[in-house]
Design brief:
Layout (H helix, E strand, L loop, with lengths): L13 H12 L4 H18 L13 H4 L1 H33 L2 H4 L7 H15 L5 H28 L4 H34 L1 H9 L2 H30 L1
Length: 240
């Protein structure tokens, strides 16, 4: 993936570099890391269209870059919308799983273990499990956007240097960013609810069942015996 080049700014790139280092250190697929890096760099490029390379707010500077600002926000909007749509799909998957048969029945004691395995299989089959690190990384572009775009945009507004078209473009961008964060938070809450309400209570019932514990012990002893028996057979075959 070809990453956008950064403008020459007096403004510190330390927040961007800190974010890029954080993305590089997390256990994400390469394509996800590149997407985060591209998004952050495009935000910084957009900021360079609002404020001059010297860090000064020159009259007419942002308006002269109006077309570039439009294209920049359009690209960012597309990326944010795709990510938001993916989060909504995951929310739908959580709701779908919760209404499935394994989650709507109250299993009898002898069916607890089977039902638990069915629920776990449904979750792993239909849901991409999020982690807290992912949520933290998703929140970082907001800080990057504040630092390099929105703070300058507010300053331009106070100076009367942001026309209606620029205002619409930046406001749509931040509305979509907030929408993404909202949908990601809904996804995290849905998964936490699924984890808290569905699996732990069932697992507690399984652990408290003497009959199931006895079956587990029998299965464990049986596996050990088969393993031992297989070892003896291999030993005899080796001696022959």
């Amino acid at each position: 993936m070809r990453l956008p080049s950064l403008p020459t700014l007096v403004i510190s790139l330390a927040p961007l570099n800190l974010f890029l280092n954080e993305v590089e250190s997390v256990d994400f697929p390469l394509i996800s890391k590149e997407a985060f890096e591209s998004l952050a760099r495009e935000v910084v490029v957009l900021g360079g269209l609002l404020i001059s390379a010297s860090g000064e707010y020159y009259q007419g500077y942002a308006e002269s870059n109006k077309l570039k600002i439009h294209h920049g926000t359009k690209s960012l909007l597309s990326q944010l919308q795709q990510a938001s749509d993916k989060a909504v799909d995951e929310i739908g998957n959580v709701d779908f799983v919760k209404t499935g048969a394994p989650f709507t029945v109250d299993p009898a004691m002898q069916d607890l273990w089977c039902n638990y395995r069915q629920r776990a299989k449904q979750i792993t089959q239909y849901i991409t499990l999020p982690c807290q690190t992912e949520k933290g990384i998703l929140e970082e572009p907001t800080h990057i956007s504040d630092t390099y775009v929105y703070n300058h945009f507010l300053e331009l507004l106070s100076l009367g240097e942001a026309g209606i078209e620029i205002q619409d473009a930046i406001n749509r961008l931040f509305d979509e960013l907030m929408k993404l964060l909202h949908n990601c938070s809904r996804r995290m809450r849905g998964m936490k609810d699924l984890k808290r309400r569905q699996l732990p209570p069932l697992l507690t019932r399984i652990r408290e069942s003497p009959e199931i514990r006895r079956k587990w012990l029998q299965m464990s002893l049986s596996r050990r015996w088969r393993k031992h028996r297989l070892g003896d057979q291999r030993h005899q075959a080796y001696k022959q």
